[in-house]
């Protein structure tokens, strides 16, 4: 892909210049977790392959290589001909119909694909319109399952510190209770139970390795917690092996395997939130594969449509579905207006076809190698606490908070788009990134951290 490489002259970049679009945006639009009068956004005027076309001060556009995949989603890059075609073809048939009482080929076909791709034993699919809603549906289903078994007291959830599961109220309740939004809405968020973050794991020779004593202690804490509170709990919910927006923490797969075992022992369901990790991102098709487990409920989203449209899915086992079907309620009590949107389903099917045909494993392994090499120099910087890589995810963790506008600008001047948060500068490039793209991303991140934080 063509883009401004790390060694091309610095591009003229504006954080809040005369771009008329940025001026119209200001004070009108909320951006994610940002005040209305927060730092000015950059205007995107196009995107192609792994490049974003952004506006420069003089009104011309310049290209930056996308290191974020639009938050994990654009795995095949922008304007992919196969995805564009799938979208247009479905628009030529019908763009949307209600899913109550009606069905259509895009939904059925995508559900069949998901059941085939996900770990064996996940046989039923609920389509939601965002990841947060898929998590809501998963939590609701777990409660309905326990109710169906005659256990109405089992309404709480066990989650992990450092977790992130979305922004709606039930999802917020299972996000990290300190870094999440619990403090802002104390009376509105149900009190759930939390275990510490599982011990860190690092890649060595293709395996995730961690301190066995720490793992054993964590599993002990899990067993104690569930033994004490099991009869109030409906399910355990985790992001498998990689916690994303809660801190980009990579943890020991043994802890995930233990959660599976303990859930079975105590009649809890295991909900695995693969919204960020699914579809190859961690070097396995699903991060659950790192522990060789099959959850009772799995949520997927983000990369599902290749970044084209908002769509998520909740999958569950036949055992769970049967209990609900045989209960007095019979139905899963959820049904969004835009459930199983045909445009989104059609693009998702095309995206999964591409994924399977594209040799994603080779792409992700190549990115993993490129990020490991490209980010390594950051280890020498005084501000850097740690550099870690898993699959097509690279993380540079600082000791202190990132100066987000300054680091973003410095990286853009190297031709790389990143969006740091807290003390983390991270990248999850599109799977179609070339070796040169990945090298530029590594160099851009190292240069930006060095320039701003030393
Ligand atoms: C992004 C994310 C969500 C929420 O998905 P939205 O589509 O933003 O609602 C939930 N869980 C995980 C792990 C995520 O990364």
Q: What does the model show?
A:
The protein has 2 domains: 151 residues, Aspartate Aminotransferase, domain 1, CATH 3.90.1150.10; 276 residues, 3-Layer(aba) Sandwich (Aspartate Aminotransferase, domain 2). Helices cover 35% and strands 18% of the residues. The strands form 5 sheets. A 7-stranded mixed beta sheet has the order 4-14-13-12-9-5-6, sandwiched between helices. A 4-stranded mixed beta sheet has the order 1-2-3-17. Helix 7 packs parallel to helix 8. The radius of gyration is 22 Å and the shape is globular. It binds pyridoxal-5'-phosphate (PLP). The site of pyridoxal-5'-phosphate (PLP) has 16 residues, from helix 5. It holds the Pfam family Aminotran_3. One of its GO terms (biological process) is biotin biosynthetic process.
Sum this structure up briefly:
35% of the residues lie in helices and 18% in strands. It is an alpha/beta fold and 454 residues long. The chain folds into 2 domains: 21-76 and 359-453, Aspartate Aminotransferase, domain 1, CATH 3.90.1150; 82-357, Aspartate Aminotransferase, domain 2 (3-Layer(aba) Sandwich).
Note the topology.
Layout: H1 20-25, E1 44-48, E2 51-55, E3 61-66, H2 69-72, H3 81-93, H4 105-117, E4 122-128, H5 131-148, E5 156-160, H6 169-173, E6 193-195, E7 202-204, E8 207-209, H7 212-229, E9 233-238, E10 242-243, E11 249-250, H8 253-265, E12 269-273, E13 297-300, E14 312-317, H9 318-325, H10 342-357, H11 360-375, E15 384-390, E16 393-398, H12 404-413, E17 416-417, E18 424-427, H13 435-453
Parallel strand pairs: 3-17, 5-6, 5-9, 9-12, 12-13
Antiparallel strand pairs: 1-2, 2-3, 4-14, 7-8, 10-11, 13-14, 15-16, 16-18
Helix pairs in contact: 3-10, 4-10, 5-9, 7-8, 11-13, 12-13
The chain binds pyridoxal-5'-phosphate.
GO molecular function, one term: adenosylmethionine-8-amino-7-oxononanoate transaminase activity
GO biological process, one term: biotin biosynthetic process
Protein name: Adenosylmethionine-8-amino-7-oxononanoate aminotransferase
């Amino acid at each position: 892909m063509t883009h401004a490489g790390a060694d091309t002259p610095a591009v003229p970049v504006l954080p809040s210049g005369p771009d008329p679009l940025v001026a119209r945006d200001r004070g009108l639009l909320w951006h994610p977790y940002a005040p209305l009068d927060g730092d000015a956004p950059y205007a995107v005027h196009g995107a192609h392959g792994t490049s974003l076309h952004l506006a420069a001060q003089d009104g011309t556009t310049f290209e930056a290589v996308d290191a974020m995949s639009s938050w994990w989603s654009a795995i095949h890059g922008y304007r992919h001909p196969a995805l564009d075609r799938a979208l247009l073809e479905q628009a030529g048939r019908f763009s949307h119909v209600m899913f109550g009482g009606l069905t259509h080929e895009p939904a059925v076909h995508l559900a069949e694909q998901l059941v085939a791709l996900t770990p064996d034993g996940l046989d039923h699919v609920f389509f939601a319109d965002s990841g947060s809603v898929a998590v809501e549906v998963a939590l609701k289903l777990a409660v309905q399952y326990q109710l169906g078994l005659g256990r109405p007291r089992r309404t709480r959830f066990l989650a992990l510190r450092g977790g992130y599961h979305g922004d709606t109220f039930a999802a917020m309740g299972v996000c990290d209770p300190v870094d999440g939004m619990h403090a802002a809405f104390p009376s509105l968020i149900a009190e759930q139970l939390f275990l510490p973050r599982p011990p860190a794991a690092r890649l060595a020779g293709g395996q995730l390795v961690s301190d066995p004593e720490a793992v054993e202690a964590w599993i002990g804490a899990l067993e104690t917690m569930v033994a004490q509170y099991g009869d109030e709990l409906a399910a355990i919910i985790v992001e498998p092996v990689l916690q994303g927006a809660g801190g980009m923490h990579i943890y020991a797969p043994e802890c995930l395997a233990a959660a599976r075992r303990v859930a079975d022992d105590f009649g809890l369901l295991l909900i695995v939130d693969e919204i960020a990790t699914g579809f190859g991102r961690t070097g396995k098709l699903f991060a659950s594969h790192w522990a060789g487990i099959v959850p009772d409920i799995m949520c997927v989203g983000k990369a599902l449509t290749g970044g084209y449209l908002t769509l998520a899915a909740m999958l569950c086992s036949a055992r769970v579905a049967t209990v609900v079907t045989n209960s007095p309620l019979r139905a899963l009590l959820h049904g969004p207006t835009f459930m199983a949107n045909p445009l989104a389903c059609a693009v998702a099917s095309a995206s999964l076809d591409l994924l399977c045909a594209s040799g994603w494993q080779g792409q992700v392994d190549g990115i993993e190698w490129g990020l490991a090499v490209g980010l390594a120099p950051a280890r020498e910087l005084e501000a850097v606490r740690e550099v870690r890589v898993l699959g097509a995810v690279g993380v540079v963790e600082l000791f202190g908070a990132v100066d987000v506008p300054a680091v973003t600008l410095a990286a853009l001047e190297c031709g790389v788009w990143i969006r740091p948060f807290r003390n983390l500068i991270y990248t999850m490039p599109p799977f179609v990134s070339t070796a040169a793209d990945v090298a530029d991303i590594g160099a851009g991140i190292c240069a930006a951290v060095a320039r701003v934080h030393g």
